[in-house]
């Protein structure tokens, strides 16, 4: 495996050095401040095309030469970006095919960023030229540690003739014949049959198969563009690892597939602390995304961007309260990151992000709490350096499937307003987060299920080819499978399963779902657990969705209690092979999920650092070099005490022994190593 860095945790930021070339005193100050903040890496060259190539064929690398030399001279490494995320004005004017075209046939004007046509031969050639020059010039530079290819790829769609031709060619490769396509898309509905590939226009939301394949093509074409602009980097600098920064998992890209082609996964994390409900909820949601990025390659990832304070693009954003910056930064480390990096190092004086948070603000640095918070993180990362490279071991996984998300977005259900696929996956994940049980995220097609003992598949509406068979094999081999309403409803072509759902697995679950009811707030639907199976029983509210199911051998552990569904199965278990398949027939709240998964944890003896943790406290372990590194994090604004249950720890930052009870202040965090 390619390694860009020694075994250390990275601390740095996006450094837009080129914005300050007319201010040499500021550049001098920057490098002094980087030392004081214990920074060891900077991401550079992002969005710098117009400075590198101000006119076609006219190259100016002198400023980048000085930057890399200066980074090296100050003991910092460079994550060097290619500039394709924002094209220069001369390129848009000379090569209009590089600009995207809307469905109305109009080219987008020059401006913004991330708005190039990924199929454009002109744009691809221009990217390869500049990337080749960068690779040849800096291949032996001692500061170069990693390539940062472009920036935050998205799936913005282009309807230009080149993209439509590429889409039709993609369809022809997939289906072979137009008749196969018609069958897969069920085009007899509304007389939408096609007689030739040229008739296909990706603008008709009534043909779900068409729009689903358009989403798939767009994702694939973005990956193809990434591979094309990465080619000279791979060829000229084969020992230098390559990455690109992922975003939230709802930008239209299949990151499971994309992740195969980067050497290390990384992402840009911007949770809205102190804004989106309580910070415990935000903490669980953020942990989900960290673990998703760790799971893409099953090894440590990099936190490429975060903010040391607030943002300017989220509608509402608040500065972090005292303690939150250290907590939120170390949370990323706890969930598998080997870095904490920021956008941006120094706040821009102008442009779209001049009010975005930064390590160094307009008013200066050293007198600000933000800078002190960043310096505190830098010192903490140096103190816990042995964590670098360590791994996470999980016995549990929650499936998060991008194709499933796209299909659900298109689905016109009786309840279309409450689908919330991502939120549902986070809800199931959060139950394990609150228990301190490590949890991976998994793809229904790409991931190896055999490593897990328990697999949760919330709202896996779409069973792509082979998924039903993979889930069957998992249960048959001894795995515990948990599915919910809206599972296995359609196949990979978005055609409905016949004979009841989950499609192809009704025998594994011992039931067949025949209808899904919309559970309105006025319906006051609830489920009641059997006290024989769950001591003490209990009733739990159901919202949005409730399945009408026909039991076919499954044991019923809970029943609906209200309305037409009253008495119907709400929670079932079916023994199959060496394992079992559970079905949760309604959307419940966190109280039920905690009770249900807590019971499964006890039955399966799922491992966790501690048997119990106080509310608001998260505990997460990383394992490496024979050591167990444990992170204790308090996401509440009140102090918490954690009973260490007789486990002896040593504080990684101070070296002091820790036994008995661990005290955590408001938004407090401690990093310990067990057994020392």
Short recap of the structure:
With 676 residues, this protein is α/β, with parallel strands linked by helices. It is built from 17 helices and 29 strands.
Structure write-up:
- There is one protein chain.
- The protein is α/β, with parallel strands linked by helices and 676 residues long.
- It folds into 3 domains: 10-382, TIM Barrel, CATH 3.20.20; 396-604, 3-Layer(aba) Sandwich (Rossmann fold), CATH 3.40.50.880; 617-674, Golgi alpha-mannosidase II (Immunoglobulin-like, Sandwich).
- The chain contains 17 helices and 29 strands.
- The strands form 6 sheets. Strands 10, 11, 12, 14, 16, 17, 18, 19, 20, 21 and 22 form an 11-stranded mixed beta sheet that branches. The chain has a 6-stranded parallel beta sheet with strand order 5-4-3-2-1-9. It has a 5-stranded antiparallel beta sheet with strand order 23-24-29-26-27.
- β6, α9 (255-258) and β7 form a beta-alpha-beta unit.
- α8 runs antiparallel to α13 (402-410), α10 (279-297) packs across α14 (421-435) and α11 (324-334) runs parallel beside α12.
- The radius of gyration is 26 Å and the shape is globular.
- The mean pLDDT is 96.
Radius of gyration: 26 Å
> Sheet bearing the most strands, described?
11 strands, mixed
CATH topology of the largest domain: TIM Barrel
**Structure classification:** alpha/beta
Count of DSSP helices?
Answer: 17
Shape: globular
**What's the level 1 CATH class of the largest domain?**
Alpha Beta
